[in-house]
Write a structure and sequence with these properties.
Elements (H helix, E strand, L loop, with lengths): L4 H5 L7 H15 L3 H22 L6 H31 L5 H6 L3 H18 L2
């Protein structure tokens, strides 16, 4: 468990908040005028919320509880990655730009962290 954001950033696969927000802004701005892209963004957000809901309570779970919840957490993480990949392919095929996907990369932990940041931002926007 990371005790501070500063400690988190020392991890090899960490994703700084500012970088995550630059990626998210690219996705949101480029996809805003395209209805199908907005649907894919919404799908990513739904998957991210489901994944983050499980991940947020992870450190409070006992080993037995983690064992019971691990398959669902992995399933939700896979759905986040799949939604991200579908969004990236769509944006590439429709010339909306998907360079953000190269920047984010394929590392599962970074993608999961990105989902957490986006859900945080969505929570702040909902106030």
């Amino acid at each position: 468990m990371y005790t501070t954001y500063k400690e988190y950033l020392k991890q090899e696969t960490s994703l700084p908040f500012e970088e995550a927000m630059q990626i998210w802004n690219q996705i949101a701005e480029r996809g805003e005028a395209d209805a199908a892209c907005r649907e894919l963004i919404d799908r990513f957000l739904k998957c991210a919320v489901d994944y983050v809901r499980i991940r947020n309570g992870w450190n409070q779970k006992s080993l037995a509880e983690k064992g019971q919840a691990d398959a669902e957490r992995t399933r939700c993480h896979n759905l986040v990655i799949s939604a991200k990949n579908k969004l990236s392919v769509y944006m590439y095929e429709h010339k909306l730009g998907n360079d953000w996907d190269d920047w984010l990369g394929e590392e599962r932990k970074r993608i999961g962290d990105f989902a957490c940041y986006v859900v945080l931002l969505q929570g702040l926007e909902a106030r």
